[in-house]
Please model this.
Amino acid sequence: MIKPRCPLDGGKLIEVNGNTACESCNTIFPKVELANGRHVLDLRCLDRPTEVTLTFTIPQTPLQSGQVDRFGAATNADFRHPSREKIRKLYGTKLQKEFLYYIDTLLDRAGTAAVLDLGCGSGGNKKYLESIGFQNVISVDYMAPGAEYLVDAHRLPFAPGTFDLVLTTATLEHFYNPYIAFKEISRVLKHGGILLASGSFWESWHGNSCFHFTPGGLDLLCRSAGLELIDLWPGWGFIPSVASHALGLGRFKRVTYLLQGLFDFTVSILLGRDASKRHKFKTGGSFGLCAQKPETT
Ligand SMILES: [Zn+2]
Model:
């Protein structure tokens, strides 16, 4: 069972007179009520600002379009997996094939692998992961009802090297400083652990999204945090995402998905089925990625 730590100084959390407090700095963490009436520990420390110094190496060279041919392993893979629609109905999660593919690589360690679902929303990812045998999943969010703890992704309340997998889907655009958030994710990952993440590209004007991502930007973020980008893929297509997020045409979802299907089919006829040749992710509404923290630094 994964135990959170104090996000301010990494101290151990202890019970004091019915409250949860940090053994080291004595900060007391309140319980707050979520939208669904559940009460959870608030580890965001909203009234305790901390200054973070970010080290950045100059110069940096972002991923170039010519380098995309090393990606596409999960998209091209022929492996059995439940349909996205089925797991959405059963568990309320939108995990796509590529996420399922990389989650499958951890299945032989599902009984012991520590998993963080960062920005868990309704908590559907945990339900799905438990249904396939994962026993050590912790769901956190800034405020959503599926959270077991409220956390800030820029100040994660976990010890270094805690997790075998950090899963964070449809979240990256909500990080107000993605460089700091990626460093935090990297810090809490074990060496050899993997990050599965997705963030917006075309999905403008939704919620309080701050930064949207290109493949080159995602590569920079990973490298700056000491992670190696292993794979990259498009999320949903640009036609439904622009129609929904920029034009407010979400109610025409079926039509926009049909148009996207026609576009993708045409591209596959012209360029072949191989994902790297299609460079399909260049037009994704969002991008998903798999990155690994190297075994040794
Ligand atoms: Zn503390």
Q: What stands out?
A: Residues 253-271 form the longest helix (19 residues). The chain has a mean pLDDT of 92. The two ends are 27 Å apart (CA to CA). The pocket of zinc ion is lined by residues 6, 8-9, 11, 22, 24-25, 27 (CB under 6 Å).
